[in-house]
Design a protein that fits this description.
This protein is an all-alpha fold and about 425 residues long. It has one domain. It has 17 helices and 2 strands. It has a two-stranded antiparallel ribbon with strand order 1-2. Strand 1 and strand 2 form a beta hairpin. Helix 4 runs parallel beside helix 7. The longest helix is centred in the first third of the chain and has 31 residues. The chain is globular, with a radius of gyration of 21 Å.
Length: about 425
């Protein structure tokens, strides 16, 4: 079967799932982003005091006004697109809140997911000549990537994952481009920088892409990739200054979270945890939010990455470019966070890296063709499929404890 046929089938299935389970009311995580969008469009301010979506825990106080604690780039882009949509259709948050929320969730959930799937297919076709590897890779990605559940809501996870994978696609193209074009270098930098403004630890990967390209062509990396990445990062700082009066991200200003009535004065449940680090690391790797327990096909992917580096194969540069920042982000999250991303299915903070890891799932498929290997892949795939299907279950979106969490490890009080 042609890879285009497999891709089309998978895209239709994914789009149908997201359309059926698309969120039409703000949830705890997405509420502050919707509040920022609504405030920018209706009142021209980042302050969310007067927004109907301001009842969210993800806010801080600066002076006498409340602001979203989320980075400003994504909601600003959403506000610009929604403003045009509202002017063309007459639909507003005030008169049509359900339609307005659904529109933003389609633009920043479903469409980034489909772009992610498209670039994943294109990347596999560049990496592998085997139709079997490409087709199996697309199928495993579609039915094991927990990001599908997060594509039903307005989060930064799927957009940042889409930007990172596309950035890596263009970086790979730039490194192997015999036509000496400039556009892949610029696009890799721009998209890598944009991903970093959506989710800050995407910067680990953008830095790795810079090293990946610098080792091939230092001049083009400094002239094309770096300025393009710097442009989006500079835009983030300008927006942050406009929104909060400071270049520092809100995340680095903990005093802003301490105000009268703030949830963060006395957090409860999973947000009040203070577990030993060895327990926390276990659960983000193999436990109730584990990247490997929720998506076990990543175990052979890690083996392929290690093998490529150890044996210095032709995939070693790509293995280092994906493996090193993945490890860095896991260490960062393990030491710098403590609540697993709150009440959510899976380790949502690692969604940005997962499509890149699926590339090395495909690499493992390429290298292992025996019946025993395929039986192992099928078993890991089925476990991952059950976990992935649970993420958007019952139209709750991803904002619930996974079945793995509830039935294997039990709930936090």
């Amino acid at each position: 079967m042609k890879s285009s046929t497999v891709f089309t089938m998978c895209a239709v299935v994914a789009a149908t799932v997201v359309a059926i389970l698309l969120q039409t009311t703000p949830h705890t995580n997405s509420g502050s982003r919707f509040a920022t969008v609504e405030s920018l469009v209706n009142r021209g301010t980042f302050a969310i005091d007067d927004s109907p979506f301001s009842d969210t825990v993800d806010k801080v106080m600066i002076g006498d006004h409340a602001y979203s604690s989320k980075p400003p780039m994504l909601p600003t882009l959403a506000a610009a697109i929604y403003f045009l949509f509202s002017k063309l259709t007459g639909i507003t948050f005030t008169d049509h809140p359900t339609v307005s929320i659904a529109f933003i969730n389609v633009i920043f959930g479903l469409i980034p997911y489909l772009l992610l799937l498209y670039f994943f297919r294109k990347l596999l076709e560049k990496l592998f000549n085997s139709r079997r590897t490409v087709n199996l890779g697309i199928l495993v990605f579609t039915f094991n990537f927990i990001g599908l559940g997060y594509a039903t809501d307005f989060t930064n996870h799927v957009p940042s994952a889409a930007c990172l994978l596309a950035a890596f696609y263009f970086a790979f193209e730039a490194r192997h481009d015999s036509r000496l074009r400039r556009s892949p270098w610029i696009l890799a930098g721009f998209l890598g920088g944009l991903a970093s403004t959506f989710e800050f630890w995407a910067g680990f990967f953008t830095l790795a892409f810079l090293v990946y390209l610098f080792s091939a062509n230092p001049g083009k990396t400094l002239r094309l990739f770096l300025p393009a990445a710097a442009l989006t990062v500079a835009a983030h700082f300008a927006l942050n200054l406009a929104a909060t009066g400071s270049l520092l991200p809100v995340y680095l200003r903990p005093e802003l979270y301490r105000f009268g009535g703030s949830y963060w004065n006395e957090p409860t449940g999973i947000d009040s945890l203070s577990e030993p680090k060895h327990v926390y690391f276990f659960h983000i790797l193999l436990g109730h939010h584990g990247i490997f327990s929720m998506t076990p096909v990543f175990l052979p992917a890690v083996l392929s990455i290690v093998s490529a580096v150890k044996n210095r194969t032709n995939r070693m540069p790509e293995a280092l470019t994906i493996g090193v920042p993945t490890l860095a982000v896991l260490l960062f999250l393990g030491f710098r966070t403590r609540n697993y991303g709150g009440v959510c299915a899976g380790l949502r903070w690692m969604i940005l890296a997962m499509p890149l890891l699926f590339v090395f799932v495909a690499q493992w498929i390429e290298e292992h063709r025996s019946g025993r290997s395929m039986a192992l892949l099928a078993f890991l795939f089925l476990v991952g499929f059950a976990n992935m299907a649970d993420v958007p279950w019952a139209n709750a979106g991803p904002w619930h404890n996974s079945a793995w969490h509830k039935h294997v490890f039990g709930l936090y009080p």
